[in-house]
Every structure is written in C-alpha cells, then in structure tokens.
Amino acid sequence: MNNLEQYMLPCLNKTVLGVECTGCGGQRAALLLFQGEFKEAFVMYPAIYSLVVLFGFLIINLFIKFKYDYNIKIGLIIFNAVIIAGAYIIKMINTFN
C-alpha cells in the first residue's frame, strides 16, 4: 500500500489470542476506500460502506434535525451490527475449515 499503513494500530485480539476480531480489516478498508479501491475495500471489510452511511448521517444530524432521527440512527446501528456479525461469522467459518 503506502506509508500510511505503518501508522495502523495492530489488533490486540489477534496479537494476544491469535483470532481476528469483528473490526479486523476496518483500518485497511478505510485506507483502500480513500485510495479509490472500492471493491477491495468491500472485500477487506464488508461493513465499510454501511459505516460510512451511519457516520455521514450522524454528522449531518448534528446540524440538521430530522423528525425520526432517533429511529433512523437505531436502524442504521442494527443494520451495521448485522453486517459486521454476519461477515465475522463467515470469516470464522472460512478460517476454521
């Protein structure tokens, strides 16, 4: 990649226990997204795009209030949790097979 990779934080879970956590790949996916490698970012961490939508909504909601903003936030959080958990389960199944 480039020099930004040397500043990435190591996964403590993977370092200590040897098993990836639910966030493993998130930093690299964000870096790939900023570099314009959109498909590779999704393959690295499938929740990257839903997290961008969530954080974008949260930032916009700081300045503009919506009628059902709380429900939208909760829905986006649940949606992200499902994607992250599903991707992690698939990753663990592929790891141990």
Describe it.
This protein is globular. The protein has one domain. It is built from five helices and no strands. The two termini are 29 Å apart. By secondary structure, the protein is mainly alpha-helical. It has helices spanning 12-17, 26-34, 38-44, 48-63, 69-96.
Summary tags:
DUF2752; 97 residues; Membrane protein; mainly alpha; 5 helices; single chain; transmembrane helix; transmembrane
Summarize the structure.
68% of the residues lie in helices and 0% in strands. It has 97 residues and is mainly α.
Summarize the topology.
Layout: H1 12-17, H2 26-34, H3 38-44, H4 48-63, H5 69-96
Helix pairs in contact: 2-3, 4-5
The share of residues in extended strands comes to under 5%
Structural class: mainly alpha
Helix content: 55-70%
| General shape | globular
User: What is the residue-averaged pLDDT?
Assistant: 92
In the residues, how many domains can be counted? 1
Rg, nearest Å: 15 Å
Which blocks of ≥5 consecutive residues have pLDDT under 50?
none
Q: Helical segment tally?
A: 5
Question: What is the string of SSEs from the N terminus onward?
Answer: HHHHH
Q: Main beta sheet: strand number and arrangement?
A: none
End-to-end gap: 29 Å
Number of strands: 0
